[in-house]
C-alpha cells in the first residue's frame, strides 16, 4: 500500500472560553439582607454567580467528546466500489462529514452471505456504492453534534442502528429503529478520480478504509479483543446470538433447533449452549459445517438430504420429552400443535450462487423455511434470520391461525445494539462464546472479491477483511 493510503492525522480541537474563577467564595446574604440589596449589589452578585457557573461548565467540557472542527475534505482512501455490475478497488477523496456523522478508520469488516450478490452478482446500485453493512475501526473524527463516541475510540459500526428516541426505540423495538431507513440520509461521502460521487450501502458500507456513519450506528467497545472478532458483532455473530438471547430467550433445558450451520447458525448454537439448552439440533447439508456445529455445542446434527421426507416428524419425536403423562409435565403426541422444539432458528436461506460443496434438497430455501415452522411446537418461538429465499410460501389457514407459535423477524435477531454488543463482548472475554472459531479466513482490501467468492462457494465459514 502506498503512503497516500496510510491513515492521515485529522485536526481536532475544542475551543472553550473559560471565565476566571472568583477570587474567593461568594457570600450568600440572608433573606432579609437580600431583600434590602441595592441594584448595584444585586448585579455584582449575579455576575459572580454567572462566572462561577461558566467556570463549572468549562470544567465539564473537558470531559466532553472531542469535536472535529478541522476539515477532512479531500482525505484520500481506498474502497471497493460497485459500479454497474462490476466491482473494483478505487482511489477516493473524502467529502466533508456532517455534524452528526462519525469518521471511522476501518480495521476489520466481516463478509455476510447476503452481500455476495452486491460484490459478485448482478446487483446494480443506482449510484457507485461501497458494499457491505457493517464494520469495525477507530474513530478519527466526529461531527460537532456527536456525543456517543470520541476520537480514538474503538467503535463497532453495526448493521442495525439504535437512536433510542424514535417511535420504534421508545416502544422496545430498536432493531427496527427508524434510522434503519438509510434513504433518509445516505448522501455521497466521497468522489472518484473523475469526480463521480460515491455512496455507501445502507449508509454504512464497510469494504473500505474509511466508513462515514451516522452516530446512531456507532457503538464504542471498551475491550482488548481482536478487531476481526469484534467486527462479527456488527452482523453475523451478533445476529445468531441475539436470536437465542433476545426475541425468544432460550431457557435452561429447552429444545433448540437450528437450520443452517454457517457463521450465523453457529452463533445461535453457541448462544443456546451458553443458556444451558437441553438439546441443540442442527440441520445442515455441508459435512464440515455439521462437524463444526458439534465442536461448538450441538448435541445432534442432521443432514436434510438424508432425512428430507421424515425430517419434521423425526425432530418432533426428538423433542417429545421423557413422558406423555400430562399430570406429570408431559405432553400428548408429537403432532403439529404439541410436538416440536421450544426454540427454532432458521439461518439457512437459499443459494444465491451454486455452492462448491454439498447443497440441500431445495436451493430456494423455501423448504427449510416451511420445515422450521413445522418443527416449532405450539407456544414455541421461531426466529427467521435467513434472507436468501426466493419465492413465496403458504400455510394451512387453520393450523397457521391456531398454532400459537411466536414468529420473530430477523433484523439482527432482535439485537438492541447499544445494550447487547457490550454483553456479547463480555461473553467472548469470559469464554462463553468462541468468536474466533467461526473465522476461517482473512483477506486484505485487494482480496475482497476473492473472499466473497469463498463465501458464495460456502467453502469458508466466517470471512473477515482486514485493513491497514
3D architecture notes:
By secondary structure, this protein is α/β, with parallel strands linked by helices. The protein has 2 domains: 76-220 and 438-466, Alpha-Beta Complex (Quinone Oxidoreductase, Chain A, domain 1), CATH 3.90.180; 236-414, 3-Layer(aba) Sandwich (Rossmann fold). The chain has 13 helices and 18 strands. The protein has helices at residues 31-35, 39-61, 116-119, 167-170, 227-231, 236-247, 263-274, 287-295, 311-318, 366-374, 397-402, 417-429, 448-457, and strands spanning 76-83, 86-94, 101-111, 129-130, 135-142, 154-157, 190-191, 197-200, 210-214, 218-220, 255-259, 279-283, 300-302, 341-346, 376-384, 406-408, 439-443, 462-466. Helix 6 (236-247) packs parallel to helix 7. The radius of gyration is 27 Å and the shape is globular. The N and C termini lie close together (8 Å).
Outline of the structure:
The chain has 468 residues and is of the alpha/beta class.
Amino acid at each position: 500500500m502506498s503512503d497516500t493510503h496510510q491513515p492521515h492525522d485529522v485536526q481536532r480541537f475544542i475551543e472553550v472560553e473559560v471565565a476566571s474563577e472568583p477570587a474567593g467564595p461568594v457570600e450568600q446574604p440572608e433573606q432579609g439582607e437580600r431583600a434590602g440589596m441595592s441594584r448595584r449589589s444585586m448585579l455584582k452578585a449575579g455576575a459572580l454567580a454567572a462566572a462561577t457557573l461558566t467556570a463549572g461548565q468549562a470544567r465539564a467540557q473537558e470531559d466532553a467528546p472531542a469535536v472535529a472542527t478541522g476539515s477532512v475534505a479531500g482525505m484520500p482512501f481506498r474502497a471497493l466500489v460497485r459500479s454497474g455490475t462490476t466491482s473494483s478497488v478505487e482511489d477516493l477523496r473524502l467529502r466533508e462529514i456532517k455534524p452528526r456523522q462519525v469518521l471511522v478508520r476501518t480495521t476489520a469488516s466481516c463478509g455476510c452471505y447476503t452481500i455476495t450478490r452486491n460484490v459478485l452478482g448482478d446487483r446494480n446500485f443506482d449510484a457507485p456504492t461501497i458494499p457491505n453493512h457493517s464494520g469495525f475501526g477507530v474513530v478519527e473524527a466526529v461531527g460537532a453534534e456527536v456525543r456517543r463516541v470520541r476520537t480514538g475510540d474503538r467503535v463497532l459500526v453495526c448493521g442495525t442502528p439504535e437512536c433510542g428516541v424514535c417511535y420504534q426505540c421508545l416502544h422496545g423495538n430498536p432493531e427496527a429503529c427508524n434510522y434503519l431507513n438509510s434513504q433518509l440520509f445516505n448522501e455521497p461521502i466521497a468522489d472518484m478520480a473523475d469526480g463521480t460521487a460515491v455512496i455507501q450501502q445502507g449508509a454504512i458500507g464497510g469494504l473500505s478504509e474509511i466508513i462515514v456513519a451516522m452516530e446512531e450506528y456507532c457503538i464504542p467497545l471498551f475491550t482488548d479483543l481482536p478487531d476481526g472478532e469484534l467486527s462479527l458483532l456488527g452482523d453475523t455473530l451478533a445476529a445468531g446470538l441475539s436470536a437465542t438471547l433476545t426475541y425468544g430467550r432460550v431457557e435452561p433445558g429447552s429444545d433448540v433447533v437450528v437450520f443452517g450451520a454457517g457463521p450465523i447458525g453457529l452463533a445461535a448454537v453457541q448462544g443456546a449452549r451458553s443458556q444451558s439448552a437441553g438439546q441443540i439440533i442442527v440441520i445442515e447439508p455441508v459435512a464440515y459445517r455439521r462437524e463444526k456445529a458439534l465442536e461448538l455445542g450441538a448435541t445432534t446434527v442432521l443432514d436434510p438430504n438424508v432425512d428430507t421426507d421424515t425430517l419434521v416428524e423425526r425432530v418432533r419425536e426428538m423433542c417429545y420429552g421423557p413422558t406423555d403423562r400430562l399430570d406429570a409435565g408431559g405432553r400428548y403426541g408429537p403432532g403439529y400443535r404439541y410436538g416440536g422444539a421450544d426454540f427454532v432458528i432458521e439461518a439457512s436461506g437459499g443459494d444465491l450462487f451454486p455452492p462448491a460443496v454439498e447443497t440441500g434438497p431445495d436451493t430456494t430455501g423455501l423448504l427449510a423455511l416451511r420445515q422450521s415452522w413445522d418443527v416449532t411446537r405450539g407456544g414455541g418461538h421461531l426466529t427467521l434470520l435467513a434472507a436468501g429465499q426466493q419465492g413465496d410460501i403458504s400455510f394451512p389457514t387453520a393450523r397457521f391461525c391456531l398454532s400459537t407459535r411466536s414468529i420473530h423477524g430477523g433484523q439482527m435477531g432482535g439485537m438492541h445494539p447499544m445494550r447487547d454488543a457490550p454483553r456479547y463482548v463480555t461473553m467472548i472475554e469470559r469464554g462463553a462464546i468462541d468468536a474466533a472459531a467461526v473465522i476461517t479466513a482473512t483477506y486484505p482490501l485487494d482480496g475482497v472479491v476473492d473472499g466473497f467468492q469463498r463465501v458464495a462457494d460456502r467453502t469458508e465459514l466466517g470471512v473477515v477483511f482486514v485493513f491497514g
